[in-house]
């Protein structure tokens, strides 16, 4: 619903700045030129008068609700807004029934559903017949990846448009508009202005609220520096949901930064997760996995240090134990990397499935009974320690299975020495079996 001036809002000094700055046309929407610019796909859809059901996927404060309202205005459609947080089946039925009545009189309905990912699968299925028969044009808004949160039937009937967090240029345009509306400048030093944009973190709605606080509380005759700005506005709590996509995006960023030996980036992502409220033990479990999988035998000490860091955190807790996490991140980031053990294990498992019924060769079978000795168990076995090299060169694979190389260490870190040993044993094996 459109916000209207009331006796109470006028008494309170008028509508909030965010409401007064709300774009009146699609041309006034900032930060989404890839969709709404002259060649943007959403712009072309509007101009062709072929608006179909769609999903707007983007972070908070990027303009999803505003765009939906403007799409309804441009298409001369009745705008109905629901929130999946507060609405249920009864609200949906009412919206569909009213849309059907409007359709009978020639009026189209744009149904905007905020946080659409919060509807369960059955509720999402309820949209399908009304979207298919044109009773409503559905515009769903979500902050979560639609591929994971929306069912495939609904996704197949909607186009997905990805909205970006607002960049510096978009935030600059918001400041300009706010200054024009207020009739005075936002008096900030360059450093304070930069800090203000950092605090917004791409969220236009939050950014406008910060601006309004400065207009309301700061002395218009004095320029604010960074310290003065932070006394007026509070730092925003990190946006982080441990149960949703942001959680997996950040742990993926940490893992790949470590794999790429970008230690500083890895420290940043680890700090982001801790500051966002992530369970440090989850982080330690993933770091321990990284030590085994991505550092591996290139630095055998990495796994031991991971276990030690885990133990240290469990003993000390936060915040003291977090230093052990930081030390582990640094160690893993700067360690030589090798996934040779991980690769060897996967190859060995494939071979185990392919040759799943073969018995060990007779010469390496124990023969604790007379019958087993008569059957040839243990016959011809050579005790490696009795050879001059400590290496017999015998075959330990099943007799009907070709010899395979699963483990192929790179010439990095400790595995450089292992590679030399394997080459030496390969040569001895060829000599002893030639």
Number of strand elements: 5
Poorly predicted residue ranges = 1-13
Tell me what portion of residues adopts beta-strand conformation. 5-15%
In round numbers, the mean pLDDT is 87
Largest sheet: 5 strands, parallel
What would the principal axes of the Cα set say about the shape? elongated
Query: What's the helix count?
Result: 22
Radius of gyration over alpha carbons? 32 Å
The helix/strand series, from N terminus to C terminus, equals HHHHEHEHEHHEHHEHHHHHHHHHHHH
Helix content: 40-55%
Taking strands numbered 1, 2, ... along the chain, how are they ordered across the largest sheet?
2-3-4-1-5
Distance between the termini: 87 Å
Top keywords for this entry?
five-stranded parallel sheet, mainly alpha, 434 residues
Structure description:
By secondary structure, the protein is mostly helical. It starts with 6 loop residues before the first helix and ends with a helix. 26% of the residues are buried. The chain has helices at residues 7-11, 17-20, 33-36, 41-47, 64-74, 89-104, 121-125, 128-132, 146-149, 152-155, 168-182, 190-200, 204-217, 226-232, 245-259, 263-275, 280-295, 301-316, 322-334, 340-354, 370-374, 415-432; strands at 54-57, 78-83, 109-114, 137-142, 159-162. The protein is 51% helix and 6% strand. The longest helix is centred in the C-terminal third of the chain and has 18 residues, at 415-432. Helix 12 crosses helix 13 and helix 17 (280-295) runs antiparallel to helix 18 (301-316). It is elongated and about 100 Å long. A five-stranded parallel β-sheet has the order 2-3-4-1-5, with helices on both faces. The chain is built from 22 helices and five strands.
């Amino acid at each position: 619903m459109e916000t209207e001036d009331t006796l109470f809002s006028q008494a309170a000094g008028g509508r909030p700045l965010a409401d007064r700055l709300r774009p009146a046309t699609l041309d006034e929407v900032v930060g989404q030129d890839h969709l709404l610019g002259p060649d943007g796909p959403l712009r072309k859809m509007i101009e062709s008068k072929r608006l179909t059901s769609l999903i707007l996927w983007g972070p908070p404060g990027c303009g999803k609700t505003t765009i939906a309202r403007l799409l309804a205005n441009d298409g001369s459609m009745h705008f109905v807004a629901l929130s999946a947080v507060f609405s249920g089946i009864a609200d949906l039925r009412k919206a569909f029934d009213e849309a059907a009545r409007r359709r009978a009189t020639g009026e189209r309905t744009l149904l905007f559903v905020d946080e659409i990912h919060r509807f369960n699968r059955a509720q999402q299925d309820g949209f399908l017949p009304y979207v298919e028969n044109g009773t409503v044009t559905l515009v769903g808004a979500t902050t979560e990846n639609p591929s994971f949160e929306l069912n495939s039937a609904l996704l197949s009937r909607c186009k997905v448009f990805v909205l970006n967090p607002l960049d510096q240029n978009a935030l600059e345009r918001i400041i300009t508009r706010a200054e024009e509306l207020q009739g005075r400048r936002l008096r900030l030093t360059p450093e304070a202005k930069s800090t203000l944009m950092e605090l917004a973190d791409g969220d236009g709605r939050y950014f406008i609220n910060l601006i309004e606080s400065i207009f309301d509380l700061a002395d218009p005759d004095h320029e604010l520096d960074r310290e003065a700005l932070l006394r007026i506005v509070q730092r925003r709590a990190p946006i982080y949901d441990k149960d949703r996509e942001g959680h997996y995006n950040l742990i993926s960023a940490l893992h790949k930064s470590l794999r790429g030996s970008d230690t500083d980036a890895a420290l940043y992502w680890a700090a982001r997760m801790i500051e966002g409220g992530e369970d440090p033990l989850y982080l330690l479990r993933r770091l321990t996995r990284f030590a085994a999988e991505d550092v591996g035998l290139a630095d055998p000490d990495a796994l031991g240090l991971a276990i030690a860091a885990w133990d240290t955190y469990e003993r000390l807790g936060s915040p003291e134990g977090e230093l052990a996490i930081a030390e582990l991140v640094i160690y893993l980031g700067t360690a030589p990397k090798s996934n040779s053990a991980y690769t060897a294990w996967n190859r060995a498992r494939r071979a185990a499935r392919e040759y799943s019924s073969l018995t060990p060769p007779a010469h390496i079978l124990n023969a604790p009974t007379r019958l087993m000795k008569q059957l040839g168990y243990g016959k011809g076995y050579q005790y490696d320690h009795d050879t001059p090299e400590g290496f017999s060169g015998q075959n330990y694979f099943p007799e009907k299975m070709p010899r395979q190389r699963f483990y192929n260490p790179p010439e990095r870190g400790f595995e450089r020495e292992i590679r030399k040993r394997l080459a030496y044993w390969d040569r001895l094996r060829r000599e002893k079996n030639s």
